[in-house]
Specification:
alpha+beta; Alpha-Beta Plaits; 8-stranded antiparallel beta barrel; 25% strand
């Protein structure tokens, strides 16, 4: 994990065709690849770890981190753990890239670890990771039309992230995006409006899959977030806001979670 081994951009592009990602939003994101913030693309890895093997998983991962820190061609990423988890421990690894083609230039993770720790130790490390976890990966593409990024963001890794994953109903992705754009308009114009970045799945995920991230340095920052629908009501009024919020569950399903930065499992990337 933490780099592509046998997965190339061509493979991901093939998956994109299979998954039929929302063409409009994906196209907009690609056009943003030269922007500085937010990152145009994330190679995202989600690992589900056996609750009884979290310690050995983390010990092995720390060795992977050490290898990438010491290697001239090591990758950079930010790792997050899920707070208030269930029977499995959930970890996310965000590897940013400015251009999709850069992924093909990454040195395989197995080689990075073997170059630093030796082939025998590398084999043990990856065996431990494989026996203690199951992982999946995908590429996320920044979708500016459904984002309200913080203009003051410096590129620093947030200590906490509120994450919402949304799955639009079949054929309803554009309808869902239209509703989110109305929410973006309201929050952009409001002095207490929230800031977030929205991403569509460019490859490796489901059709109509979206991810939203709101970062913060302290959990207490959530106390200042506007309550309920007050921002929307101030812009659209009670009746229109009710229609907007009532339409969301008709075209999509959402699940949210709170993530905490895991510095010991990260190899921080430089600010863009």
């Amino acid at each position: 994990m933490l780099s592509k081994d046998n997965i190339s951009v061509k493979t991901f592009l093939f998956l994109t065709v299979v998954a039929t990602v929302v063409a409009g939003l994906a196209g907009t994101a690609i056009a943003q690849e030269d922007s500085q913030v937010p990152y145009p693309f994330f190679y995202l890895i989600k690992a589900k770890v056996d609750a009884t093997k979290v310690n050995v998983y983390q010990e092995a991962l720390v060795k992977v981190v050490q290898a990438h820190k010491q290697h001239d061609s090591g990758n950079n990423w930010a790792a997050f753990s899920q707070l208030f988890g269930g029977p499995e421990a959930i970890f996310y690894f965000f590897l940013p890239t400015q251009k999709l083609g850069e992924i093909d230039d990454w040195i395989p993770n197995t080689k990075v670890v073997a170059d630093i720790h030796g082939e025998a130790d590398a084999e043990k490390i990856f065996r431990t990771l494989g026996e203690s976890s199951k992982s999946m990966s995908k590429i996320l593409a920044y979708a500016p039309d459904i984002s309200n990024p913080d203009p003051a963001w410096t590129g620093a890794v947030p200590q906490f992230v509120y994450h919402i994953q949304v799955q639009a109903e079949p054929g309803k992705a554009s309808d869902y995006a239209d509703l989110v754009q109305k929410m973006v308009a309201a929050h952009k114009d409001h002095p207490r409006g929230l800031h977030w970045t929205g991403y569509s799945v460019f490859a490796g995920g489901e059709a109509g899959e979206f991810h939203f991230f709101a970062g913060m340095q302290k959990l207490g920052e959530m106390d200042a977030w506007p309550m309920g629908s007050e921002v929307l009501v101030e812009r659209y009024g009670e009746e229109e806001t009710g229609k907007l919020l009532g339409a969301l569950p008709q075209v999509s399903k959402a699940q949210d979670e709170l993530l905490a930065h895991s510095p010991e499992m990260s190899n921080p990337f430089p600010a863009p």
